[in-house]
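tokens incoming
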């Protein structure tokens, strides 16, 4: 078949079944006049595996999620410490009210902005960070 042409689902099923039963992928591809890469992608999709680029994107999303959650945790901890310190009368009386307000406002604002990037995914949305979380408007 010419490049880019749609292959019948029956052919795809036959090819995938042949490879999954243990026949060499290159031989199955040659017998059906198909590209090895195409057959490999069909087999990976049938086995529930992701292509390398998708796996790398998922790994990058996971790393970004870890960093984001770490930042959120750090800012929550900082807010907790500020509030804890502000509850001590001896410390509070020694502080400049304007500086304390700026510190609290900065921590709270940063935390709110980080949390704004998180939202539930719609059912039709792929896993990972959404474009909205990256700063785009809905």
């Amino acid at each position: 078949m010419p490049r880019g042409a749609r292959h019948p689902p029956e052919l795809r099923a036959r090819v995938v079944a042949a490879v999954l039963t243990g026949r060499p992928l290159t031989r199955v591809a040659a017998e059906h006049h198909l590209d090895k890469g195409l057959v490999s992608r069909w087999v990976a999709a049938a086995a529930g595996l992701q292509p390398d680029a998708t796996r790398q994107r998922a790994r990058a999303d996971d790393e970004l999620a870890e960093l984001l959650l770490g930042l959120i945790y750090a800012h929550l901890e900082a807010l907790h410490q500020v509030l804890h310190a502000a509850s001590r009368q001896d410390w509070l009386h020694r502080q400049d009210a304007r500086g304390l307000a700026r510190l609290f406002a900065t921590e709270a604002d940063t935390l709110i902005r980080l949390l704004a990037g998180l939202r539930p995914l719609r059912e039709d949305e792929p896993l990972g960070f959404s474009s909205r979380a990256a700063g785009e408007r809905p």
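note: The longest helix spans residues 52-86.
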